[in-house]
Amino acid sequence: MFPRNSYLNTLIERKKNGLVKIITGLRRVGKSYLLNKIFYLHLLNEGVDENHIVRFAFDSSEDIDLLNKYYPEEKTKIYINKHEYVINSKKFRAYINDKINDDQDYYLLLDEVQLLEDFVSTLNSFLRHSNYDIYITGSNSRFLTSDIVTEFRGRGSKIHIYPLTFKEYQEGLNLSVDEAWKNYLETGGLPLVALMKSEEERKEYLKDMCLEIYLKDIVNRYKINDEQKLKDILNVVSSSIASYISPYKISNTFKTYNVVASHYLIDKYISYFEDAFILSTAKRYDVKGRKYINSPYKIYFEDVGIRNAKLEFRQVEETHLMENIIYNELRYRGFDVSVGNVSVNEPSDRLDKNGKIIYEQKQLEIDFVASKFNKTYYIQCALSINDEDKMKQEKKPLEALKDGFEKIIIVKNRLKPTRDNKGIVIVDLFDFLLNSLDF
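-> structure tokens emitted (439 positions)
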């Protein structure tokens, strides 16, 4: 129902590149489906013999049972504690050696690979076989982190999967644009959630996921003792999407409620949320000075449904969520995205001793500076532009830039794209989300 063609094409481009293809992303984003359904069918359609595609899921009892006959004197499951185990890597290597019995190409599609004992060294050893092409997914707290590729010491190639884009959502569910937007804005783009029939089911599932899985992953990975403080910080961050935040200000907010949370702790917890792909931080970029400003910065959630669920669906503000969705769309399209900052000199109400107007430097904000290769776009987001004053406000920071890069205002106006005499393009939100960026 959701073909995920962009990711399929990436996997196709990286076939036989001599690296482990590491599919990362938020839980329930569709990593296993991409690998074991979409990519598997592609291989079959390309004429790859089914016997040359080895699929193994380390969380499947049926697959695990296949290992029992190898080295029967050893345990297949090695328990770390009462509830956690890893799969005997010696048995798994014997299984792979048994499955691969010629010099032709073999594709190894391995799911939940973090459950394999010493999986990094095992997979790196497989790379010594030139006819092995390896693809993996994982979803525990260790595997979810953004630095997983470094564990493969230069032998890994990451493919990061985002939740469904609005276009994938609307076309996959065959909904009208308006109905798709209403649902997407509220419950986001996790494929499993999108397929649920009722709004109540979608909301309850997202709330359960947020509390029982996403936060638990972070708690378990970093051995966090004060889980409530972690939840409180995520609540504050969730209420602040598309707005500037700083750990210092959040710390001061907590102080007003007699809660101690240092800015160091808050900064650390935000980095944990980012490493787990729950959210992203967008730094400020001084366009004229060509430098980044570390703080304050903006927060955007990788899936707006998770953000809304964390707030019990009480703050579904279209303006901020629209900006979050545009940010995600740009990142899905491969852009590096930051928040623009441009300095301008403007006349003040004051005069100097000679009666001349005193000019003051002011900082204007550009919602997004999106860069990819040699292309840069300056983008403003506005839910509506109802009068000339609002239009001037949106255009002002764009008109202050003279570098020749494309300048775009995205507005939910349901009109065809237009370009003014200064080269600024005004494009409808859905034209942007459903089409390419070239206007």
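The longest strand covers residues 336-351.
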